[in-house]
Specification:
268 residues; alpha/beta; Metallo-beta-lactamase, Chain A; 7-stranded mixed beta sheet; 5-stranded mixed beta sheet; 16 strands
């Protein structure tokens, strides 16, 4: 939906770009509602964009209004609300576009074809000049969801890998909850001592507070409880990809998770 892009500066060198979608809720006060976020991060020498929204057409133009630095694009995962149609604009402008190779089958189904994608490697560093992003891999929500950590500045960009208050672990490409739990534990070991960590998710609007280590702990705790069978979500149907699929929800309103949606046949 071109023309619904909201830009907010989060820090001296960090901007978020939020794309809105039509608000179909009965009695909605606004015709649109926030949907998905992309990020621009600049250093002294280079810049990166993390994800490219969905149907928004002006992202590249808006990024270039903020920086003229050499630019790379980092894709967290191959879902259509994070690998948007404007990916071609970045490719045509000569930007390198990075994604984990395991995401390519989903990417090809999206038909987001550009001349060449470069493959992320776990541990790969993007040095922007005074701001270094380390590439982490967290299979679960998708086969190879990517996260990007600035350990010194305490910033973690997660896409949908740990959700954003709403967490989908029921999609056809989602791995088992046990695999997710193993990878969440690895992430926790990496960041648990970063008490002031700020987590930048792919859908900032889904939670009323800034995400932090407490949020990550909630995701891990909920995953443990679902795997153990202690928590069983209410069964619901939702439409996905033109069809219907039954999924189970567990609502954790007392903490930072609003809906943890999972496939009860894919616990592991």
């Amino acid at each position: 939906m071109d023309g619904t892009l909201a830009i907010k500066q989060l820090a001296e060198n960090i901007w978020t770009f939020n794309e809105s979608v039509p608000n179909t809720e009965p009695g909605a006060e606004s015709p649109t509602r926030p949907q998905v976020d992309a990020y621009l991060i600049t250093g002294s020498e280079r810049a990166v964009v993390i994800d490219t929204l969905m149907d928004e057409k002006s992202l590249y133009q808006k990024v270039r209004e903020l920086t003229s630095l050499p630019l790379d694009v980092l894709i967290t995962h191959a879902h259509p609300d994070h690998l948007g149609i404007c990916i071609k604009d970045f490719s045509d402008a000569g930007c390198d576009i990075y994604i984990f190779e395991e995401e390519m089958p989903s990417l090809e189904r999206l038909k987001r074809n550009v001349p060449l994608y470069k493959y992320l490697q776990e541990g790969m560093i993007f040095d922007l000049g005074g701001y270094k992003l380390e590439t982490l891999k967290l299979p679960g929500h998708t086969p190879a969801s990517a996260l990007f950590l600035e350990a010194e500045k305490r910033h973690l960009y997660t896409g949908d890998a740990i959700g954003a208050g709403v967490f989908w672990m029921w999609t056809p490409a989602s791995l088992s909850l046990k695999v997710l739990k193993e990878n969440l534990d690895k992430l926790w070991d990496r960041v648990k001592d970063m008490k002031d960590l700020v987590i930048h998710t792919g859908h900032r609007h889904q939670a009323p507070i800034q995400h932090n280590l407490d949020f990550l702990a909630d995701v891990i705790f909920a995953t443990e409880k679902i795997i153990s069978g202690e928590w069983v979500g209410e069964e619901k149907e939702m439409s996905f990809g033109g069809g219907g699929q039954k999924v189970k929800y567990r609502t954790l309103a007392h903490n930072y998770i609003i809906d943890y949606a999972y496939n009860p046949d894919n616990i592991g």
